[in-house]
């Protein structure tokens, strides 16, 4: 229950219960609230009047005015006020930035995605994020004051205060350039989290892990990183490092925290060097490029090209080793490959499934490709910001308004 009674006396508990109910109820009546949260009619009516007076709830036209009234006294109908505020979900990757402004329920108001220069300094990166947040708010027709909660997913471990530890090459300091402090005055609630953990939120609320209590969301495009959920709880760690991909630098047969995009490229070149595929063929000929687009190889494999199938089988063996490590460490029911590469990764996933049982003694987790694509972190950031608004920002707003009433 939203605790808006701390400063206002225990008589406000019913107000918090009605507010909690309103988040998922849509349009509702006093009778609906009574039945759901087991309070008396007089208590429900008093709580509704309090929330309407504080402009947290809006009373809708009654059934007669709406044209649905047939007989008897029309019921009063209520809903969350549409102008309570908005949330921001930010995906702050190494080479990209996505900012989403959304309402508190289910509507995206603005979304922008831009490429970033990975050579930016931390100060430049911080300024860029703030600039695009302001532009996105303007595109959504919102003022900075309307922001209730912000969640940022960053490509770095993040502790419970939103800070990242130092990285030997300064990577984490650039991807999380003091964002908790930089955004602190932008909204009542600001959360900075590891991007894989935020992806896990998206998979659990919208994707392949809905209804699953034990799973890993594996961001696997550019670098490996896992968002781990066990017994329904997101695992975090002292420094936010649960699922950090550097462990794969030390796994035989993996050897690197760089993701599947690089693995596809490396296997194409290795197969050409070993003479396993023709360097002049449709797949082998790609090895002359400075960087191979993995989607070309994956599409060829899906179409049955034998050279591409060979490459995907080798990458699948690597993915199976990674999933085997995750399966042995966390015992998840599912591992979900996430990120933009997930849209075309099925040939690799299929190859990994075939050899996965040999990689661990426990029953192998179900291996799936995410359906959420490149926006998985954005979607998780918005979901996290909405939850923060529901649990913390709006109850705080209600407390302040009721205190003035």
Which labels suit this protein?
alpha/beta, 405 residues, single chain, five-stranded mixed beta sheet
Structure, explained:
With 405 residues, the protein is of the alpha/beta class. It has helices at residues 13-25, 30-37, 41-53, 63-66, 122-139, 171-175, 179-182, 195-206, 260-273, 294-302, 306-330, 346-355, 376-404, and strands at 28-29, 57-60, 77-80, 86-92, 96-102, 108-115, 147-154, 189-194, 215-219, 225-230, 233-234, 334-338, 366-369. The strands form 3 sheets. The protein has a 5-stranded mixed beta sheet, with helices on both faces. The protein has a 5-stranded mixed beta sheet with strand order 11-10-9-12-13, with helices on both faces. A 3-stranded antiparallel beta sheet has the order 1-3-2. Strand 10 (225-230) and strand 11 form a beta hairpin. The protein starts with 12 loop residues before the first helix and ends with a helix. Mean pLDDT is 91; it is low at 4-11.
Brief rundown of the structure:
The protein has helices at residues 13-25, 30-37, 41-53, 63-66, 122-139, 171-175, 179-182, 195-206, 260-273, 294-302, 306-330, 346-355, 376-404; strands spanning 28-29, 57-60, 77-80, 86-92, 96-102, 108-115, 147-154, 189-194, 215-219, 225-230, 233-234, 334-338, 366-369. It has 405 residues and is α/β, with parallel strands linked by helices. The chain is elongated.
Instruction: Note the total helix count.
Output: 13
Total number of beta strands: 13
The share of residues in extended strands comes to 15-25%
Biggest sheet: strands, sense, closure? Answer: 5 strands, mixed
The helix fraction, in percent, is 40-55%
Across the major sheet, the strand order is 6-5-4-7-8
Tell me, rounded to a whole number, the average pLDDT. Answer: 91
Sum up the overall morphology in one term.
Answer: elongated
Task: Give helix and strand order, one letter per element, not per position.
Answer: HEHHEHEEEEHEHHEHEEEHHHEHEH
* Alpha-carbon distance between the two ends: 22 Å
Which oligomeric state applies?
A: single chain
Give Rg in angstroms: 25 Å
The chain-level structural class is alpha/beta
């Amino acid at each position: 229950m939203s605790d808006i009674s701390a400063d206002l006396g225990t008589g406000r508990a019913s107000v918090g219960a009605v507010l909690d109910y309103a988040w998922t109820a849509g349009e509702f009546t006093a009778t609906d609230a009574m039945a759901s949260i087991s309070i008396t009619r007089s208590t429900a009516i008093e709580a509704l009047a309090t929330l309407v007076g504080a402009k947290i709830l809006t009373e809708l036209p009654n059934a007669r005015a709406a044209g649905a009234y047939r007989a008897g006294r029309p019921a009063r109908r209520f809903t969350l006020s549409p102008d309570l505020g908005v949330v921001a979900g930010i995906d702050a990757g190494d080479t990209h930035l996505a900012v989403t402004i959304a309402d508190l329920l289910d509507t995206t108001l603005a979304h922008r995605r831009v490429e970033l220069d990975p050579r930016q300094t931390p100060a430049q990166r911080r300024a860029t994020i703030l600039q695009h947040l302001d532009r996105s708010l303007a595109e959504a027709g919102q003022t900075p004051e309307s922001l209730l909660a912000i969640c940022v997913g960053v490509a770095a471990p993040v502790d419970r205060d939103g800070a990242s530890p130092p990285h030997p090459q300064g990577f984490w300091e650039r991807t999380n350039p003091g964002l908790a402090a930089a955004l602190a005055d932008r909204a009542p609630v600001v959360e900075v989290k590891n991007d894989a953990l935020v992806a896990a939120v998206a998979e659990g609320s919208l994707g392949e892990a809905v209804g699953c209590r034990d799973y890993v969301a594996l961001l696997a495009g550019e670098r490996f990183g896992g968002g781990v959920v066990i017994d329904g709880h997101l695992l975090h760690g002292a420094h936010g490092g649960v699922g950090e991909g550097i462990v794969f630098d030390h796994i035989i047969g993996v050897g690197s925290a760089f993701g599947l995009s690089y693995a596809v490229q490396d296997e194409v070149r290795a197969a050409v060097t070993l003479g396993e595929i023709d360097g002049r063929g449709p797949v082998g000929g790609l090895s002359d490029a400075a960087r191979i687009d993995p989607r070309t190889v994956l599409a060829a494999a899906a179409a049955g090209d034998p050279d591409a199938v060979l490459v995907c089988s080798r990458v699948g063996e690597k993915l199976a080793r990674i999933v085997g490590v995750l399966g042995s460490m966390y015992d998840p029911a599912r591992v979900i490959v996430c990120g933009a590469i997930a849209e075309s990764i099925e040939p690799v996933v299929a190859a990994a499934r075939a050899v996965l049982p040999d990689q661990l003694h426990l029953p192998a987790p179900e291996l799936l490709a995410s359906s959420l694509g490149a926006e998985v972190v954005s979607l998780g950031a918005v979901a996290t910001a909405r939850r923060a608004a529901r649990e913390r920002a709006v109850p705080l707003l209600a407390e302040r308004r009721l205190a003035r009433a």
